[in-house]
Recover the amino acids of this structure.
């Protein structure tokens, strides 16, 4: 197992390195000059030039890549062109919104999806099953940003239960923030929950066909007991993968949701930074997101091993 | 054989939209490029089934064309995904089966790399680099379809390579490429078809998202996503402008997903095998 | 009043009749065997008793266990019955255990359900006891062992431990040994028998193989098409069988090999010299699957390659077929060194075990059978090809009409015939039969074997018959190679091997392999309950 | 003991105070940083101008120049040198004193070679700066520049302290009536009252600028009461919803933003005046204003703010007349029109107007390929490399008709007569003469149909009833809150 982890870590680092190159090249070819952007319609050329040199934009590409990488390794992501503050500060602020939002959404979708999946699996073909899975189908089909708009319309404008958007900041108190994150979390969670529920259902059905369930029944366990004691843990294995994927998806996928609820999250920051050509921010964030994805997949694999002893010796399936 | 209900419903919905899309090529109730400010914000009525927008355009016509654009973009995007992904997957599997683990590793790591990038974000980047527009939206979405199909193909292929009929073919001295296309591809075709429908629906949502942020199909061509975006601020006095395109997207995707599920029930060999297993279990010793 | 008494049991699933008034009874300490081919309904009978049936099952008739009618019990009551009165052992030991739970946990769970309210310690002791009794002493197999660490036989023992740990009155074993090697099979059967005697349980043993049960069963029930066609036990049961089918079954089980003249001085068409094949497992570990194996086949000669799973026989066969490269040694086909050349391939063809997996489901029989033409330099014109395929089909006992059908339209036996046709189409010198009959029912197997020996006589081709089962090989081969752990431990003429095996492993194989003749022989002498190898731990 | 009581008391009082003495201001664009002397983002001025930073002079909501840190000033007869008499006892928010040195520092900094000031040209004419004493300073120009006084009232010319200049981007230190408290990036910027302000104290205890990018949430935020005032509400289409709601007040003013169909005069066929005239005739301003701005804008016929005294209404010069348009096209040799591109920047007004313009021009056979782009790309392609045919954009700089005199500006309008007019204005000291010249300039560019002159961008103020003292107009981009107060619940 230890050797396995080591191997994975190595490929993880490799992936990241390649990723940074890809990102950097991509950023390089993005047209549009941050300095010119900041100078606006009436900006004089020499002022722009001055700004360029101030931002260190007229270094060679290679040098910039190296300094970027070495900087990141040291934890220094450079200074935002537009905000003029350390990128790392920016990112930490935004992460403190995006990550909680993501986790919130994931928790929501999980607590919705798992029971739904199990129930409709055990009621397979029954009315409840058809109903729930029908709902899930619709859930998958709804674009989350549209759903978000509808929710704003309903809860903020009509009912005025939640404030329309914005984020008070954690010093304003946990509950306040939770409240601010609720609508966004729901609009993120719903489609994910729908997907998750479908996966859960099919994997439960799969498991219920296994021989060891029959063995358990022969021991005298009722269908339900067999499912709970032997089915669930095995059924959760595929669900883990989806959860992993969803976490990384939500982390970056919040862009539109964040702007609809005007949340100061990573997604919005990166979107805005692309528009403002604050490229140093863009590449750092994208790198971090890639890192997140890679790490999460890694963690999920470790979780597999935790759930499934067959993998503890590093046997891959 | 009796078709499952979800397939029937899905097929119907999908055909409706496809017909609308095709019809829009030759005819729409109104010309969506002609702006008539005079009759803007008309609520749904006999003349304008889904009302008119802030430029006085007929929403129904826009939906028709918007659906067409969505379908077009998604189709090509998924097409790209299959065109590159499937051979890649076949090749990787064949390579692994013939001791070329390294090639396989590299290809799959490459896949993981693409997977590791946040797709919507990358799409935005790509469109930021090459400028917004349908073509670039297609590319952006297509790229992220490649690894999906590559993985699926490889997985299915690996499963088959250990089958005895593949060995039989190899005993007959057939090369791995020949085997891939003669024996393997036909036998994974069905799962690929199913996946294609799923990806198709995902692509439609992706296209909607992209044009919602203004990076998809460009005006004056209507696109469902941008219609939603424009409708946002008018939702309070012209709600239909938001509900209609949204509903259109949902029904479209719903249709495709239902059809995909139906197809899976019909085609998916895994499921059929399990059915077979249950059957055997019920009337045979093994 | 017997322990288990099933009275005119009828079962249908989704309206399809599976069982038709089945009557049987099991006494305490008695071993009752149900024998029948696939689809005879033998498993469903046991399923009906413990009431674990697929959806849509509809049962009528009465099932008495310990003087209580369990047939009409509620599911809830049934759970307690399963927990305490009935234990069950299934066919697939590999999948019958929950992979993510320790064996201890799974046994202890069983105990908890049969006797709630036992202290944790007691449960633990009971579990250890049960495992020890089935031959998994705690010292070597602690309760914390996970199933994937165990071999098939050991897992089956765990399943048995689970069953007996509940102190059931009735034990049901549904094909408990079919998935296991011959030697393991014998051990498991003996274990079951021993446990039955010790705990004075009733054992309902289900099998497709008459020979297997003949040794252990006190009472034999033969089923066909959901009906019991014959049952009886004790002395002379076999001598006065009534029903044709059971006679045939019996004959098939005990048939002796009709001698075949072995030619000498024929030129060798396949020669394997010091073949060595290693597998890389993990970083540095090496597994030597085939270790300096040498043998040769002369024209028209039929060779049996016998060994248990994992002995390397299939690896060897894949090497010979040019499907895998090997580290050492050479293979000569028709005196020419072979490593994958097309023109040499045509001398050797193959028939695989799985009659389901060995055809591309999307190709017609015509296309399947003519696939090997790909090997020929001058490939026949389509019409010629079709012609040849047709006559080949007829030759293997199918009809010309079958040429346009798809594989799934055929039964297992027919499929093997198709496979044989495919193997013969390029008239090779050697056909490699890889467990070619293992997946078939006894009678079908018999037919296929007949066909094979006929063909070998007619076409004067050789077989390399790879099997785990000596008895199958016995009836078709002239020479036998016994393989163990990658090396050939014994080689000789079939008759000699069976008459006087020299290597202990061969001996054990012979002892283990179920042979109804022994039973008959035994019966003529006074029947003894003595088991050949009692000490199975 | 008393302290505890006190604090408890405060605790209960505090929230009330918040609602009473503070204001939440909605802002659509977040300023990239808070240093108005670097970069051009209007959003910076919208937060800091007049609130945190002040210049020697100030510009009020009518575009008039009024005293700022300079209480009064004298202009030499040759119009070259100004003597500013500075307010005394002024302190920067960090406690440092404000003196003439700060003025010199600020101006020298803006003039320096490595200056990143977007409006460097303001300081170009400065010949030298003489300090008489701490509170008297003379600035001498190379020649008379009548606009100079107005220009140093702009955000780019605010006075900063040498100690804090470098860090103003993130921690602005000015002399204004509000001081910077904190900036939750992406969400809000908090200002609090500067109790040591040298002039008339602000009437609010605090002001928070909330960044609300999404027009939908702009509406919901107003409705939900998260926002007290939206000085420039981003979605004109639903202004009427607030209008009919008694809880709100809608004040539609004007900005200095002339929205034009900018035309690449150097590129064929647009170098042909006939084509430009055709376009002018093909444009239906009313339809644009109704369709794109939902009636909330004022038509213009030239590049000049309609609320300026010297404005000339030239909208009738090229009335909407398709036949005339077609005629000019025929004359120009395009009987069945031509194809061209229309590059549109992000703002909603530009996108909507663009779509309508494209539609209108198509009526005379000019088919425009719309290309939506981000500012970065727009600036790159259109502004810098002049790689465009047509674009729609709003020029928000006040009194910026002189850009037409720059042949290298992206219009590519190179006309000697016009350049002469502008230089005359520059030299001419007398107000009446200047007015006449301005009028002439307006006519000139209108007749040459340099660009399509569409409408003056409105300023859509929406605030709760009772919010008083907000600016009606945007002569410059500023939300000067010093006079703002909340009438009732005060």
């Amino acid at each position: 197992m230890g050797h396995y982890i080591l191997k994975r870590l190595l490929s993880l680092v490799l992936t990241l390195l390649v990723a940074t190159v890809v990102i950097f090249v991509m950023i390089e070819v993005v047209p549009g000059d941050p300095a010119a952007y900041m100078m606006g319609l009436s900006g004089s050329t020499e002022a722009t030039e001055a700004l360029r040199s101030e931002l260190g934009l007229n270094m060679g590409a290679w040098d910039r890549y190296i300094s970027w990488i070495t900087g990141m390794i040291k934890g220094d992501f450079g200074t935002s062109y537009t905000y003029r503050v350390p990128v790392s500060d920016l990112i930490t602020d935004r992460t403190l919104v995006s990550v909680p939002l993501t986790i919130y959404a994931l928790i929501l979708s999980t607590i919705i999806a798992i029971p739904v999946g199990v129930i409709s699996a055990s009621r397979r073909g029954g009315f409840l099953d058809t109903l729930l899975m029908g709902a899930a189908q619709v859930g998958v089909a709804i674009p989350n940003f549209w759903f978000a708009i509808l929710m704003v319309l309903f809860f903020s404008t009509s009912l005025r239960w939640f404030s329309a958007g914005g984020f008070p900041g954690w010093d304003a108190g946990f509950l306040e923030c939770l409240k601010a994150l609720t609508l966004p979390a729901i609009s993120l969670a719903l489609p994910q929950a729908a997907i998750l529920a479908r996966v859960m259902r099919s994997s439960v059905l799969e498991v219920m066909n296994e021989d060891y369930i029959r063995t358990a029944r022969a021991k005298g366990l009722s269908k339900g007991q067999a499912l709970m004691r032997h089915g669930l843990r095995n059924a959760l294995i595929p669900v883990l993968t989806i959860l992993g994927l969803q976490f990384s998806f939500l982390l970056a996928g919040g862009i539109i949701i964040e702007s609809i609820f005007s949340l100061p999250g990573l997604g919005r920051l990166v979107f805005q930074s692309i528009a403002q050509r604050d490229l140093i921010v863009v590449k750092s964030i994208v790198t971090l997101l890639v890192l997140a994805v890679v790490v999460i997949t890694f963690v999920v694999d470790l979780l597999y091993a935790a759930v499934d002893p067959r993998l503890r010796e590093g046997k891959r399936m | 054989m009796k078709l499952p209900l979800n397939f029937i419903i899905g097929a119907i919905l999908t055909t409706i939209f496809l017909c609308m899309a095709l019809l829009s090529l030759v005819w729409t109730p109104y010309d969506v490029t002609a702006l008539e400010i005079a009759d803007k914000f008309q609520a749904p009525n006999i003349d304008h089934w889904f009302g008119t927008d802030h430029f006085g355009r007929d929403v129904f016509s826009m939906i028709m064309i918007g659906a067409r654009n969505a379908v077009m973009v998604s189709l090509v995007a998924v097409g790209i995904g299959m065109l590159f992904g499937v051979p890649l997957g076949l090749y990787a599997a064949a390579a692994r089966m013939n001791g070329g683990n390294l090639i396989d590793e590299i290809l799959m790591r490459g896949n993981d790399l693409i997977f590791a990038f946040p797709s919507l974000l990358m799409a935005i980047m790509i469109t930021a680099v090459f400028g917004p527009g349908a073509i670039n939206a297609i590319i952006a979405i297509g790229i992220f379809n490649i690894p999906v199909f590559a993985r699926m193909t490889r997985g299915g292929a690996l499963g088959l390579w250990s089958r005895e009929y593949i060995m039989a073919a190899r005993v007959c001295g057939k090369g791995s490429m020949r085997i891939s296309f003669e024996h393997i591809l036909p036998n994974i075709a069905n799962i690929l078809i199913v996946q294609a429908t799923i990806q198709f629906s995902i692509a439609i949502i992706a296209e909607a998202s992209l044009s919602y942020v203004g990076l998809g199909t460009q005006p004056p061509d209507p696109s469902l996503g941008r219609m939603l975006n424009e409708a946002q601020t008018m939702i309070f006095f012209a709600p239909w402008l938001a509900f209609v395109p949204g509903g259109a997207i949902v029904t479209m995707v719903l249709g495709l997903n239902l059809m995909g599920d139906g197809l899976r029930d019909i085609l998916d060999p895994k499921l059929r095998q399990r059915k077979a297993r249950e059957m055997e279990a019920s009337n045979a010793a093994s | 009043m017997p322990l288990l008494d099933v009275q005119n049991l009828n079962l249908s699933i989704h309206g399809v009749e599976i069982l038709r008034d089945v009557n049987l009874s099991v006494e305490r300490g008695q071993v009752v065997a149900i024998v029948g081919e696939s689809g005879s309904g033998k498993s469903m009978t046991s399923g009906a008793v413990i009431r674990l049936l697929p959806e849509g099952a509809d049962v009528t008739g009465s099932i008495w266990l310990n003087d209580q009618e369990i047939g009409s019990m509620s599911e809830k009551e049934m759970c307690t019955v399963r927990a305490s009165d009935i234990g069950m052992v299934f066919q697939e030991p590999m999948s019958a255990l929950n992979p993510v739970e320790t064996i201890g946990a799974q046994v202890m769970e069983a105990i908890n359900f049969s006797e709630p309210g036992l202290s944790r310690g007691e449960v633990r002791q009971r579990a250890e006891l049960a495992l020890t009794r089935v031959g998994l002493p705690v010292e070597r197999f602690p309760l914390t062992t996970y199933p994937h660490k165990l071999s098939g036989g050991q897992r089956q023992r765990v399943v048995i431990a689970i069953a007996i740990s509940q102190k059931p009155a009735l034990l049901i074993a549904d094909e408990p040994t079919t998935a296991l090697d011959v030697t393991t099979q014998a051990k498991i059967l003996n274990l079951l028998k021993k446990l039955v005697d010790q705990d004075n349980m009733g054992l309902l043993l289900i099998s497709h193989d008459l020979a297997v049960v003949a040794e252990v069963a006190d009472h034999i029930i033969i089923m066909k098409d959901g009906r019991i066609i014959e049952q009886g036990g004790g002395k002379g049961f076999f001598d006065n069988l009534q029903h044709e089918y059971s006679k045939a079954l019996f004959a098939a089980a005990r048939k002796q090999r009709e001698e075949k003249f072995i030619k000498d001085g024929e030129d060798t068409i396949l020669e394997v010299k010091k073949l060595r094949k290693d597998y890389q497992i993990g970083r540095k570990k090496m597994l030597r699957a085939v270790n300096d194996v040498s043998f040769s086949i002369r024209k028209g000669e039929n060779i049996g390659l016998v060994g248990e799973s994992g002995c390397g026989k299939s690896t060897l066969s894949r090497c010979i077929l040019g499907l895998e490269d090997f580290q050492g040694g050479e293979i000569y086909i028709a005196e020419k060194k072979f490593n994958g050349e097309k023109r040499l391939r045509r001398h050797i063809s193959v028939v695989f075990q799985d009659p389901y997996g060995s055809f591309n489901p999307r190709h017609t029989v015509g296309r399947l059978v003519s696939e090997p033409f790909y090997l020929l330099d001058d490939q026949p014109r389509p019409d010629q090809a079709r012609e040849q395929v047709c006559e080949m089909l007829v030759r293997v006992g199918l009809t010309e009409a079958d040429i346009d059908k798809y594989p799934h339209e055929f039964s297992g036996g027919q499929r093997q015939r198709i496979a044989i046709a495919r193997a013969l189409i390029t008239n090779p010198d050697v056909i490699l039969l890889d467990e070619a009959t293992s997946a078939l029912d006894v009678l079908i197997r018999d037919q296929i074997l007949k066909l094979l020996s006929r063909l070998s006589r007619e076409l004067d081709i050789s077989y390399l018959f790879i099997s785990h089962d000596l008895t199958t090989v016995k009836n078709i081969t002239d020479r036998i190679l016994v393989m163990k752990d990658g090396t050939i431990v014994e080689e000789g003429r079939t008759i000699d091997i069976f008459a006087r095996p020299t290597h202990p492993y061969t001996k054990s194989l012979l002892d283990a392999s179920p042979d109804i003749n022994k039973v008959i022989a035994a019966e003529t002498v006074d029947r003894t309950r003595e088991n050949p190898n009692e000490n199975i731990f | 003991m008393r302290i505890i009581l006190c604090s408890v008391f405060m605790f209960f009082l505090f929230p009330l105070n918040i609602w009473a003495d503070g204001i939440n201001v909605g802002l659509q664009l977040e300023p990239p940083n808070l240093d108005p002397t670097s970069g051009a983002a209007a959003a910076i001025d919208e937060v800091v101008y007049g609130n945190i930073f002040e210049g020697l002079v100030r510009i009020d909501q009518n575009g008039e120049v009024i005293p700022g840190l300079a209480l009064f000033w004298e202009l030499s007869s040759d119009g070259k040198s100004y003597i500013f008499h500075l307010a005394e006892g002024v302190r920067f928010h960090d406690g440092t004193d404000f003196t003439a040195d700060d003025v010199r520092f600020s101006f020298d900094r803006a003039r320096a070679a490595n200056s990143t000031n977007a409006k460097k040209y303001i300081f170009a004419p400065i010949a030298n700066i003489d300090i008489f004493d701490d509170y008297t300073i003379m600035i001498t120009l190379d020649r008379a520049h009548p606009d100079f006084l107005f220009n140093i009232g702009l955000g780019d010319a605010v006075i900063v302290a040498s100690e804090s200049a470098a860090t103003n981007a993130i921690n602005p230190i000015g002399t204004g009536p509000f001081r910077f408290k904190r900036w939750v990036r992406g969400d809000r910027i908090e200002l609090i009252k500067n109790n040591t302000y040298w002039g008339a104290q602000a009437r609010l205890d605090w002001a928070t600028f909330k960044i609300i990018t999404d027009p939908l949430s702009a509406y919901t935020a107003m409705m939900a009461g998260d926002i007290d005032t939206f000085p420039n509400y981003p979605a004109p289409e639903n202004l009427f919803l607030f209008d009919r709601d008694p809880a709100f007040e809608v004040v539609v003013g004007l900005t200095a933003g002339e929205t034009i169909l900018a035309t690449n005069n150097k590129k064929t066929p647009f170098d042909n005046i006939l084509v430009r005239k055709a376009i002018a005739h093909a444009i239906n301003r009313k339809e644009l204003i109704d369709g794109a701005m939902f009636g909330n804008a004022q038509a213009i016929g030239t590049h000049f703010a309609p609320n300026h005294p010297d404005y000339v209404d030239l909208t009738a010069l090229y009335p909407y007349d398709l036949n005339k348009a077609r005629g000019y096209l025929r004359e120009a040799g395009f009987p069945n029109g031509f194809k061209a591109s229309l590059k549109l920047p992000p703002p909603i007004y530009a996108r909507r107007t663009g779509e309508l313009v494209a539609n209108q021009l198509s009526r005379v056979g000019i088919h425009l390929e719309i290309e939506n782009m981000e500012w970065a790309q727009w600036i790159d392609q259109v502004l810098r490399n002049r790689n465009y045919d047509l674009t729609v954009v709003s020029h928000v700089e006040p009194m910026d008709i002189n850009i037409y005199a720059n042949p290298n500006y992206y219009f590519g309008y190179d006309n000697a007569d016009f350049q002469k007019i502008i230089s005359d204005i520059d030299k001419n000291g007398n107000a009446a003469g200047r007015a006449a010249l301005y009028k002439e300039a307006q006519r000139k560019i209108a007749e040459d149909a340099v660009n399509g002159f569409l409408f003056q961008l409105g300023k859509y103020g929406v605030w709760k009833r009772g919010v008083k003292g907000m600016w009606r107009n945007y002569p410059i981009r500023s939300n000067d809150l010093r006079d703002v107060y909340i009438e009732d619940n005060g």
